[in-house]
Write a structure and sequence with these properties.
Blueprint lengths: L6 E10 L2 E11 L4 E5 L6 H8 L7 E6 L2 E2 L5 H6 L2 E3 L12 H12 L12 H14 L14 H13 L5 E5 L7 H16 L3 E5 L3 H7 L2 E6 L2 E6 L8 H24 L1
Parallel strand pairs: 3-8, 3-9, 6-7, 7-8
Antiparallel strand pairs: 1-2, 1-4, 4-5, 9-10
Length: about 260
């Protein structure tokens, strides 16, 4: 018998009035898999992440995380059950240090607290320090988040998510605004996360990042799935080329894939 998927989406729909931002979307994610999600602006990618993480619950359909339905669960409870995320925009408490940001995530994102209290237990401090070390921020942990460069703020979001001890991590455009070298840093980090057993869903427009890491790719358009398969199949799918890649980007991606395979 094959292992149970860690994430199952069944006919997930999110409506805003008459608009279906996500329309009857269904897919599964295997434990330890890296799944890439692409598509043009307005395709429903971030809305899907909002649904999965509980920020904007599905209008209809089901979401199941590691055997437990989370369709109507609150965002904090979903995080405590093992699903964490990062955001397109830098989400942090700007007046606090990088370390204190991660400590807050470790305290409230790992388990439900009946009486939160004002102190930080030792395991919370250790989890935060381990996450900062993993992403390479330990030597800059005292930096105020609002003063940190873009790459460090991206790493901060990943560290904060990692401090919650996630089973699955949703990463929304993790290399947006980064240089080529900084993108390589995040690529290496994602590979190390996979080695730790974390399942990862990626949204990204930078195609070398998406196809270089993903074992499987889903392309959305107008809230619907128009492609699902290995990255190499993107350039062979006429619908994907027409509505998303375009002829020029498709040719460049084909060349990139040839280089990866070679």
């Amino acid at each position: 018998m094959s292992e149970r998927p860690i994430l199952v989406c069944e006919a997930v729909t999110k409506r805003y009035g008459a608009l279906k931002a996500v329309n009857a979307l269904g897919f599964t994610v295997g434990r330890g898999e890296i799944l890439g999600i692409g598509g043009p602006n307005g395709a429903g990618k971030t809305t899907l992440f909002d649904v999965l993480s509980g920020l904007s619950p599905a209008t209809s359909g089901r979401v199941v995380l590691d055997g437990d339905e989370i369709t109507r669960a609150a965002p904090d409870r979903i995080c405590q059950m093992g699903l964490a995320r990062t955001f397109q925009l830098n989400a942090a408490f700007d007046s606090m240090s990088l370390r204190d940001n991660v400590r807050l995530a470790a305290k409230f994102g790992r388990r439900r607290l009946a009486m939160p209290g004002l102190t930080l237990p030792r395991d919370v401090r250790e989890a935060a320090d381990a996450a900062l070390d993993f992403v390479g921020l330990s030597d800059r942990a005292k930096t105020i988040a609002g003063l940190a460069p873009v790459i460090d703020r991206k790493l901060l979001m990943i560290a904060s998510a990692l401090a919650t001890d996630p089973k699955i991590l949703l990463m929304d455009e993790p290399v947006g605004g980064l240089t080529h070298a900084e993108t390589d840093v995040i690529m290496d980090l994602v590979r190390r996360l996979k080695q730790r057993g974390v399942t990862i869903l990626l949204i990204e427009h930078v195609m070398r990042f998406l196809v270089g890491l993903s074992e499987r790719v889903i392309i959305l358009h107008h809230g619907e799935k128009i492609f699902e398969g290995p990255p190499g199949g993107l350039v062979e799918d006429s619908t994907v080329v027409d509505v998303y890649l375009g002829a020029g980007a498709s040719a460049r991606l084909r060349d990139h894939l040839k280089g990866v395979i070679a």
